[in-house]
Amino acid sequence: MADEALFQFLHSEIIQYINSAETGESENGRCVSKLENMGFRVGQGLIERFTKDTPRFKDELDVMKFICKDFWTSVFKKQIDNLRTNHQGIYVLQDNKFRLLTQLSAGKQYLEHAPKFLAFTCGLVRGALSNLGVKSIVTAEVSVMPACKFQVMIQKI
Amino acid sequence: MADEALFQFLHSEIIQYINSAETGESENGRCVSKLENMGFRVGQGLIERFTKDTPRFKDELDVMKFICKDFWTSVFKKQIDNLRTNHQGIYVLQDNKFRLLTQLSAGKQYLEHAPKFLAFTCGLVRGALSNLGVKSIVTAEVSVMPACKFQVMIQKI
User: Fold this and answer.
1) Contact A85, A152 (CB under 8 A)
2) pLDDT attached to residue A119
3) What is the DSSP letter of B144?
């Protein structure tokens, strides 16, 4: 409980700070991209520790399952609720109660703020995958809060 | 282990980001004060959750003991090693292996960077105390890494 709260509060503070620090025309875009980059580096660091004693992964799907179960649980205290793939390099990770959105009110008028609350996590997933040798583009989308979907597009090298 | 790492990585990212965002003459001072303010708000939020089911504190010393034991353990996974007071409103909290300094190399040439790594925690303590009705000024000092002392000066109202 305590750890959860610490992460959540810190995450909100970062969003607020970056949001106020990045001023200019494309402020919103820059804020999101800064958060994404921050998430990327944290994801790289975390996955390195988490997989220290993990046996080698069989394939891409095996890596994705690890992200959905072990990685998600250690960061967000729950697993991803649903993982889908088209078996052609696109994976959709659905979290029905995404922890970093539960602080936001569910009203539709807040939907426009959702990207700021998802950017760090998109980066987190991209960074974790990157350190496992999987290059990807990660985007997120919210339809009804606090549920959201992360789409991972694997970049073939 | 995972939670610890998440907090540590996030904390480093914030320092780096704020450090690069705050440019100008008094950049170092502003960076430290931004971090302190961030810690203050996080401390306020955290203590509210931690003390939800805690009985009322007897006195100031009782509050300080709670900070040194329960609060410190939940954030830093260890207790404060030594608590001293002059019984006139000054408390010194010593942590012999402060978690947010263990990432820094122990060389003396890195001592000048220590304030950035302590500012958030100074604010954290000040925020927690503030929400418990104790107004204070919190400063920190490092002599030999990764040991450090936090000095709490109670402000009588």
Assistant:
1) no
2) 95
3) S
- Rounded average pLDDT over B90-103: 92
The model's pTM: 0.88
pLDDT digits (tens, 9 = 90+) for A95-153: 999 999 887 776 677 788 888 899 999 999 999 999 999 999 999 999 788 899 999 99
Instruction: State the DSSP string of A67-99.
Output: IIIIIHHHHHSS--SEEEE-SSSEEEEEETT-T
E strand or H helix at B7: helix B2-21
**CA–CA gap between residue B88 and residue B107 (Å, rounded):** 35
User: Helix, strand, or coil here: A106?
Assistant: coil
CB contacts, 8 Å: A42 with chain B: 6, 9-10, 13
| A–B interface: beta-carbon pairs under 8 A | 72
Closest CA to B4 of B95, B148, B94, B103: B103
d(CA A128, CA A134): 9
Residues of chain A positioned with their CB less than 8 A from the CB of B3: 3, 6-7, 74
pLDDT digits (tens, 9 = 90+) for B122-143: 999 999 999 999 999 999 999 7
Q: In sequence order, what are the beta bridge partners of B147? A: none
Rounded-to-integer distance, Cα B3 and Cα A84, Å: 27
CB contact set of B93 (below 8 Å; sequence gap of 6+): B64, B67, B68, B80, B82, B83, B125, B149, B150, B151, B152
Radius of gyration of chain A (CA): 15
Residues 47-76 of B with CB under 8 A from A: 49-50, 74-75
pLDDT at B2: 60
Q: CA of A40 to nearest chain B CA: how many angstroms apart?
A: 11
ipTM: 0.83
